[in-house]
Amino acid sequence: MQDFATDAAEIIAREKHRVGRRRFLLGAAALGIAPSLVRRSLAAVPEVVLCNWGGDAMKAFAEAFVAPYEKATGGKLVLDGSGPSNGKMRAMVEAKHVTWDICDSGVAGIGELGPRGMLEPIDYTVVDRNRILPEFGYEFGVVNYMFSTVMAWDTKVVKTTPTLADFFDLKKFPGKRMLRKDSQAMLELALMADGVAPDKLYPLDLDRAMRKISAIKSELLYWDTGAQSQNLLRSGEVSMGWLWHTRANLLKLETKGGIDWSFAGGLVQPGLWVVPKGNPAGKQAMVAIASMQDPAGQVTLLGAMGNGPGNPQAASMVPDALQAVDPGTPANLAVQAKINAAWYQANYGTALKAYLDMISS
Amino acid sequence: MAARGDRAAFVLLVTPALLLSLAFYFWPLSQVLWISVTEPSPGLGNYAQLFTSASIAHMLATTLRICAVTTVVTLVLGYVVAYALVHARPLIQRAMMIGVLLPLWVSVLVRAFAWIALLRREGVVNSVLLAGGLIDRPLPMIWNEFGVILGMTHYMLPYAILPLAVQMRQIDSALSAAARGLGAGAFETFWRVFLPLSLPGLVGAGVLVLIFSLGFYVTPVLLGGGRTLMVAEYISLQILELLRWGTGTMLATTLVLTILLALGVLSRLVDLRQLFGAK
Questions:
Q1: What is the pLDDT of residues B203-229, one digit of tens each?
Q2: Which partner from A52, A81, A88, B12 sits 20 to 30 angstroms from A12, CA to CA?
Q3: Which CATH number describes the domain made up of A4-146+270-326?
Q4: Hey, are the CB atoms on A224 and B54 less than 8 Å from each other?
């Protein structure tokens, strides 16, 4: 299953620079091995290795985060694009051979790895709580950027701006519907469509969400990768779908409004920095995280990848053209619900299993 | 003396390969087995899920159903092609062989996307049928089990055709001629002479296709529309996302054992070395 960070890396690789696949893979491979080849210096500031999902996200991260950090601290921040999946982090921690200091993860990451004791707690004496939304600072992870799951629709079929409830009205708007093959955000949007207030979502009523979704099960298609979600809408396979705002926006741009979307009724989710247990640079990882809270770098990332700044103070620096696609501006936040990571920590496994059972039966 | 020297040389030649597979194949595999009986707690708890978990049972049933249908369809189609191939003139045979081998070199991803382009709602096939007035609404040909089985069968056909053709080539054509000479009709000759003689090839190809099908990942993910959850995807989900390594390794071990069992049965029925063209 693909997660948001992987997809963001893919978008930038394809849309911004159109690098060849070969070069892309070569680059990722080279960068993936590079950190292990670099001998850790004995200088006062230990080198910090940040693992993300590769591709041209490497370039965006380098510009947004690496340069400012190195300038401010004199230390080194090395990017590794080999993709910190939960499975890989666990394998590293259990083998007591951790090579990453900071990983680009999410709610499912802290939910699965945190309770198993595989993450270092975030040190909020170093990382500034005033530079994040209070909801998105957790014990084992802190917001890095924000993204949303939103509704998009084909304007050939859906001629007026639809509500979430319309998603389930096959008579009003014919055509198939598209969901993600992962319960995260799908359950929340289904419950809101069923009339649950955005601030009363948690604890999620699993049965109610499943009932709502399975009522139109025969008309549902499910996407696995971000690119797939874009394809299904673009090629007319579905008339409405729930997908990441970055992909929805690309669709709107490339179809010149033929596919439209809105933050209204969406779910904001944080991309999270996590630190694997026993990371080589120790506390310096927290210093690097704090440095990356600087709004300027986060706005750079928004411009390059569409990932919204995790620091609310960045809002005033976001150029007008990007305001509409930034999930974290006050106006956009006001019409969306926010994910609750605590619920995921206790229930993600169960929810995902129930969801997959429902769609595959 | 010479025999002993040969033997030593043989051992010497085989040892590096054996050590390599021990270090890089059997050792990691044994760890998979180890995790499956130690996590989250020692014992066979993970294996009990095979009988107690409704979702695993459902997923395995889906996997087996799709693999069984794929195998049967592949065998029928593969048999027809192999039969035509071995009975064709040499030039045609060569052309057919290229036709069979060519898809083998095309990536499984590319093939899945080709099927999507052909079969989707506004795809080539539906457009032609709609324009010709043969149907009045698009046929649902992908994003379901039909699409998965179609894609998998397409992938598996060479693996059925090649062993079948090898087996059929070894059938003495004089036998069929003799049957005809003794008064059997064309069908009877095929049914009572050719088919029984080609049976080992059929069994071999069947087991081969079944084994390959069991581990299929890409095609079901791309053509199944998210609705067909098969064992390979289920394992990857458990290992990479949910960190339920006990469940994931248990299913992986079960898959490997099933395949070994199938190979064991196969080796009883047919000569493996002959089947894979090593003899």
A1: 989 999 999 999 999 899 889 988 889
A2: A88
A3: 3.40.190.10
A4: no
